[in-house]
Amino acid sequence: MDIPNIQSQAANLPGLQLSSVGQFFIPASASLQERRPRTLKHGDTFAVFDHNGDVISGPGSPEGIFHRDTRYLSHFYMTIGGARPMLLSSTLRDDNATLTCDLTNPDLFDESGKMVLEHDLVHIRRTRFLWQGRCLERLLVRNFDDQPHEVSVELAVDADFADLFEVRGTKRSKRGRRHPTITTKDGIELSYTGLDEFRRSTSIRFEPAPAKVTAQQAVYRLQLQPRQASSIFIEIACNLEPGGSPTAAFFKGLRDARRALRLSSSRAAAVETSNDIFNEALRRSVSDIYMLLTDTPEGPYPYAGIPWFSTVFGRDAIITALQTLWLDPTIAKGVLGHLAANQATGVDPAADAEPGKILHEVRYGEMAELGEVPFRRYYGSVDSTPLFVMLAGAYLERTGDLETLGRLWPNIEAALAWIEDYGDRDGDGFVEYGRMTEEGLVNQGWKDSYDSVFHADGTLARGPIALAEVQAYVYAAFSAAALICRKLNRRQQASRYSARAASLQFAFDAAFFDEALGTFVLALDGDKRACRVRASNAGHALLTGIAYSERAEAVVKTLMEPSSFCGWGIRTIPSTEARYNPMSYHNGSVWPHDNSLIASGLGRYGYRKEASKVFEGLFAASTYIDLRRLPELFCGFRRHRAQGPTFYPVACSPQAWAAAAPLSLLQSTLGLTFDPDNAQVTFERPVLPAFLEEVIIRNLSVGNGAVDVALRRSGKQVTVEVLDRRGGLNVVSVS
C-alpha cells in the first residue's frame, strides 16, 4: 500500500523533508472506524456511505461514489420535512449485494413551532446497490399513522470530481473546470473537465419526477394515506448516457447483480462449522472477496480494498490468490493472467519499471494521467515479481493446469530474468530495492511506510535494501520455477533453478539468521549491515521453506513471545524494538494477512498448535468488529479480558487479503494440501482451534473430482470423514 500518516511524523524528524519520504500518505484527520461506513463495490465503481445511506461532504470525508479513481458524487443528503431522518438500522446483505437503511421521521414542526408530525410515524427504507457504473436506489416511504400526511422528501446532491489522491489528502495547486449544472424535470447532470481534458459527468435521474428540481436538490411532496406507501427510484450514473426507466433499471440490475454474485461464488468450496459466530465471519469473508473481485479480460481479479485501494495491486492480489487457492483456484488464474498481460517490457524510471517486472499499482484518475502521482502504471514493489512466480508454482500444484502454465511460461521466464538481472542490484545473490526517481515509493516491500526498515537503535536503513521476506519469496520463485520446468520437460532449466534455490537458502541463512536475536534479521542495508530487528517478516521465511528446519524452533519461539504475540495476533514488530508503536501502520500493529501467512509457515514446519493460537486471536478480534469483518490492520495493544482490539483509524475495510485471512488460517490448521496428479486431497496432522469442534467442507475439488468432508474433534485428535465423493477423488488423513 502507499505510505500513510507520514506528514506529522516527518515534522518530528530533524532534516527530514516530506518529499524525501514520499508524499502519498493517508491523513488521519477523519477516522474510518469512527464513521464505520457502509461500502459497496462493483467493477471499477465503489461507494462509501454513512449509516443513513448519505454521503456527507466536508474536509477529510472519505464518503462518496467513486469511479475509476474519481469521486463522482461527493454529497447526497436526504431530509424529511427539512430534518434528517433517525436511523433504525443499516445492514448489508450477507452477499454484499445491497445496502438497506431503515429510517424514521423525527418530530417535525412548522414555522410557527407547531408539531405537524410526531416521531416514528413514517418509515423510509433505502435499498441501494452498484451495477455497471451505476448506483441504483429505491426509497420506499410508508405512513404508519392512522391519519393522512403530506411528507416532503428532499435530496441534496453535489459532485466535486476530486481525484482519489485529493480525497486522501494530497493538495493540488490547480484543478480543471466545473461546468454549469444541467437540470431537467426528472434529473440533474453535474460535469467537470479535468486538466487532462477528459470530461467526467454524473447523471442523476428520479422516477417519478420530483415536484421540484434545482441544481442542488430534488424535492418530493408525497400525499400518503394511512398505511400507504410510495416508491421513489434513483439512478446515479458515472460517465454513462441516460438509459431507460430508473425503475426498470433498478429491478433488472438487482436481479443481475445477485445472479452474478451467486455465479462467481458458486465456484468456491463451501465451509460450515460448529461455531455460528465463526460461520458469520466466514460468510462475510467470502462475500467480501467476491465483491472485491473485478472481471478483467484475463479473468477475475481481486481489487485490494475500500476506500483507498480499490484498484489493481500486484502484491495484494497475488497474496489474496494464494490465501484462497484451496477454495477457488480461478482467482489465482485470473490474477496470473492479468499481471502477465501487464508485465513491464522496458525501462521506465518514472514508473520504476524494468523488463519482466510485475505491477505494483494501476490508477485511472486525473492526477495519475497527468503524472502528479506516479501510479498510472507503476511497478515500484520489489516483491510482486517473485510472488508472481511463486503463485504460478502454487497454482500448478493445486490444479495440475499445465496448459495455463505453458501459456504463462514466457512471462514467468521474464520475471525470473528480472530477479537475476535487475533485482540483484549489486550481484551479491540477494534482491534489493531502491526507487529510480524522487517521486517513487521509498520503501518497496509490503511494509512501505517511510520508517518501516531500521536498525536496532532506530536509525532508518539506507538503501538499496534487501528484505528478509523478499529473499524468501525469491527462494520460493526459484523452487516454483524448478517445479514448472520439470512438468514442462525443461529439465536443464529445472536443475538450474533448483541449484539457485539451494544456493540462496545457504546464503540467506548465513547473512540473515542472527543467533543472539533467535530469528532472521529484518533486512540488509545498502552497506550490507544487518538491521538487527525482530519482525514478523521472519515468519515469511517459514511460509516459503527457505528457513532450515533447525532454525524453525527459534523463529517460532520469537514470534510467539508476549512481546510479539499480543493476544490478537503477531505484531509487525515486537514491543522490544526501538520504533515500536502499537498505533503505527507497520511498526507494532497487527495485520491479519501477515498473520495468516505466518500461520501457513507455522503449519509448514509442523507448528499447527501455534498456528491455531494465531487463528484463535484473529477470530476473537473479529467478534468485536462490525459485520465480523477483519480490517486491513488494527493496533497492536495487548489483549485484555472482556475487551476488544483497538482499531486503526484509517484501515481499509473490506480489504481483500484481510478478508481471505480466515480462509487461509483454516487451511493452515487443517494441514490441507492437494495432489492433482494422483487425484488426492490430504489432511496432514489436522488441528482444530479451541472455538471449533467440527468443520464441514463441501465441493472441495481437484480436476474433475470433488468431495464433501467433515473434520471433528475426537479427544486430542481430529478425525476426517468423507461425506460424499464425486469423480474418484481420494482423501488421505495423516496423523
Automatic annotation (TrEMBL):
Residues 316-621 form the Mannosylglycerate hydrolase MGH1-like glycoside hydrolase domain. InterPro entries: 6-hairpin_glycosidase_sf, 6hp_glycosidase-like_sf, GDE_N_bis, MGH1-like_GH. Residues 40-234 form the Putative glycogen debranching enzyme N-terminal domain. Gene3D superfamilies: 1.50.10.10. Pfam families: GDE_N_bis, MGH1-like_GH. Coiled coil: none annotated. PANTHER family: ALPHA-L-RHAMNOSIDASE C-TERMINAL DOMAIN-CONTAINING PROTEIN, C, PUTATIVE (AFU_ORTHOLOGUE AFUA_3G02880)-RELATED. This is Amylo-alpha-1,6-glucosidase. It comes from Pseudorhizobium endolithicum. The lineage of its organism: Bacteria, Pseudomonadati, Pseudomonadota, Alphaproteobacteria, Hyphomicrobiales.
